[in-house]
Amino acid sequence: MNFQLSEEQQMLADSAKRFVRDNSNVESHRQNKKLMPLNEATWQQLAELGWLAVPFEEEHGGMGMGPLETMVLLEALGEGLIMSPYIATVVLGGGFLRRADAATQAKTLPALIEGRLQLAFAAEEYERVFSLENTTLQGAVKGNDVVLNGTKASVMNGDQADLLVVLVRTGGQPGEKEGLSLLLVDANAEGIERVPHRMMDGRQGAEIRFADVSVSQDACIGELNKGYDVAKAVLQEGVLALSAESVGSMSVLLDDTVEYTKTRKQFGVPISKFQVLQFRMTDMFIAMEQTRSLLLASTLKYVEGHADADKAVHAMKAQLGRAGRKIGQEAIQIHGGMGMTDELGVGHFVKRLTAADGLFGNADVHLRGMVKPA
C-alpha cells in the first residue's frame, strides 16, 4: 500500500487547511445558538473551490476522485468548526445519486455540485439500535406507488434538505436485509412534517414524519426490495468520511492541549514539565495516531475491495468512539476548569467527537458488527 499523499491530494489538504484558518473561529461558532438556515455564502465557497465535486464523475461536472480524496479533504476541514452539511449532502446524498439511474443523475448531480441542491439520508429510527436491517418505516406498495408511514429520527441536514433518500421497508420483517428499498423523496411533499432540532455538536438535523406520503416507484434507487447493499456501501463511505473529519478534530484537541501546558504555570514552572501530564498527552498522541492509521487502512481496503473491508470499517467506527472519548476527556481535564467553558474550542471539538460516536451506530454497535457474518 502507498501511504504517501499524491501531489493533487496534498494540494487539496493544504487548500482546505487555509480555508479553515480563514473561516473558522470559536467566537462565531459559540454565537450560533439558534436554529438557522444554512450559511449560503460558506456553502457557495465550497462549491466554487470545487470541493462539492470531489467524488463525482467528470461527465457530471465532478472531479473524478473518490473516498481517499474525500478523506483527505474532511480531515483538513475537521480541524475547524465549520457548520456545513458536506457529509449529509455530498458523501451520503451524493453517494446514492451516483448509484441512481442516468436520468436522475442528470437532473440532480449538476445542481448538487453547484451548491443548489441539499440532500439528507433518512435511516435512523427511535427505540432501535442503529442497523440498516432494523428499519421499520412502512412502505406499502400500491400499484406503481409506495405509500410511506412512520418516523425517522435524527436525520442529518433533514431540516434543510431539498431531497430525502429514505430507507423504507417494502417487504420482509425488521431484522431482515431483504425487503428494504431506497426512495428519493421531495422533502416538501404533502404528508411530510419536519421537526428541526440542534444536534449535540451544534449542527442541525430533524425528526421527519411521514403520513400517507405517496412516492412513485420510479423514484427508487436500485431495485425495489433490494436496497440493502446500496445503503450499506454508501453508509460505509459516510462512516469513513465522518471518521476523517473526527481525526482532524482530534489533532486540534491534542495540539491545543500541548500548547496550553507550555503556557499554564504552576509552582513557577509550565505544567508541561510535570511527568504525569506528559504521560497523559503521550497517550492522547498514541490514540490519535492509531485512529489516523486505521482510517487510512480502512479507506484503502474499502477502495481496493479487500475481503475484510467490512470489518475494517466497523473497526474504524469502534476506534473512533473509544479514541474520541479518551482524547476529549484528557483535553478537558488537562485544561482544567477552562476546558468546560464555551470560551475555548476544546469543549466544542469534544461535543463534535461525542456526536460522531453516536452517528451511524456507536462503538459497541460496531464491535458487535465485526463478529457478525457479512
Question: How would you describe this protein?
Answer:
The protein is an alpha+beta fold and 374 residues long. Helix 7 runs antiparallel to helix 8 (275-304) and helix 7 runs antiparallel to helix 10 (345-358). Helix content is 49%, strand content 16%. The two termini are 25 Å apart. The protein contains 11 helices and 9 strands.
Helix content: 40-55%
Rounded to the nearest angstrom, the radius of gyration is 21 Å
Instruction: Give, in order, the helices and strands.
Output: HHHHHHEEEEEEEHEEHHHH
CATH superfamily of the largest domain: Butyryl-CoA Dehydrogenase, subunit A, domain 3
Shape: globular
Please name the CATH topology of the largest domain.
Butyryl-CoA Dehydrogenase, subunit A, domain 3
Task: Return residue spans where pLDDT drops below 50 for at least 5 consecutive residues.
Answer: none
The number of strands is 9
Q: Given the structure, what is the number of helices?
A: 11
Q: Largest sheet, described in full? A: 4 strands, antiparallel
Architecture per CATH nomenclature, i.e. the level-2 architecture of the largest domain: Up-down Bundle
Q: Strand sequence of the main sheet, in spatial order?
A: 2-3-7-6
Based on secondary structure, the structural category is alpha+beta
Average predicted local confidence, pLDDT: 92
Share of β-strand residues: 15-25%
CATH class of the largest domain: Mainly Alpha
Counting structural domains, the number is 3
Note the gap between the termini: 25 Å
